[in-house]
Fold:
Amino acid sequence: MATRKRSGASTWVHEDAESLFARYAETKDKKIRDRLVVMHQNLVRFLAGKFMNRGEPIEDLVQVGTIGLINAIDRFDPERGTKFSTYATPTIVGEIRRHFRDKAWSLKVPRRLQELNLASNKAAENLSQKLGRAPTIQEIAQAVDATEEETLEAIELGNAYETVSLDTKLAYEGESAPLSLAEFVGESDGSLENLEKYGDLSQAMDCLDQRERSIIYLRFFKDMSQTEVAKKLNISQMHVSRLQQKALKRLKDLLSD
Amino acid sequence: MASESTPSVVELKLPCKPEFVGVARLTVLGIAGRMSFSYDEVEDVRLAVGEACTTAVERAVKANKTDTDISIIGSILGNKLTIEVRDQAGHPIDAADKPQTTEVEELDEQGLGALLMELLVDEFNVESYEDGTIVRMVKYAE
Structure:
């Protein structure tokens, strides 16, 4: 491969990549790897682009594809004589497909279709009224800002993913009045979030000095007044006020990061 | 069972033009959607068939043969899906089934397209015949 001779600028780039791979294999220098990663971004973009119409943002695909690229660079043996793009493509595509597999539980793809299906149905209705005839697929596609293929797919497939009403009654054994589905739908648990905030707060508290921490603790956890705190710590109320202000500002800064 | 021994075959003939590649993809959705493939597997087959058609159209454009046809022949036999993409647009310049010869930096899209197809399906081969190329792909459900 090293003896392959070609003319023009691409020869330089080509040989440059080759010598970079050789140097990286030898030194494992992260800077060289970074250059190789940048150099092969177009390969990742090209492959990620192929998976574009599956409802994932292209940037996410490029990102996971780049992880594959980095793995491929790490494992590539330039001595073997295989082209790097040939070597890296399975790894990059593997990462991208794994990304879809891992995402499957979120039902993201069917939801995209479902939304497009709803939008297409609505557009078809509106257009029929406006035009006084059934709209064409092109007209619907235009109205929902999708390609004709996507629109057809959504109309065809969307019906398969049945939407269930929130008012659907679910009858349970031994219960007199059936409850509706909506009553079983979870909501985000505020106390969980609080727990997290407490965790952050206690970490931030550790950054305060002993006296500041005592003031915060007595004022806000023990509900003492500034005067009571002042008495307890044997300092003036003014001093408590100043220290408290300083400590609160510190905490706010720490928590806002 | 009869359906296990006789394949169900769907045949489609399309103009070898870019705007019809989507029709091929939709057809594959219709065929693969009848089998127990996951959503992503169906998408993989569609992507592979789309690639096969795209490379055929690219060759047709270069060879000035866009008035020819592409045939898509899909057959289901049990859990085996075979899809053949047959064009009359000449042969791959650099043997599409040997992507090892592709250039890294200039991204030989044809070669990479072939490599991609190979990755997406379980069996893949490319054959040249007098007028064109036959890409044959097999994917097993479950």
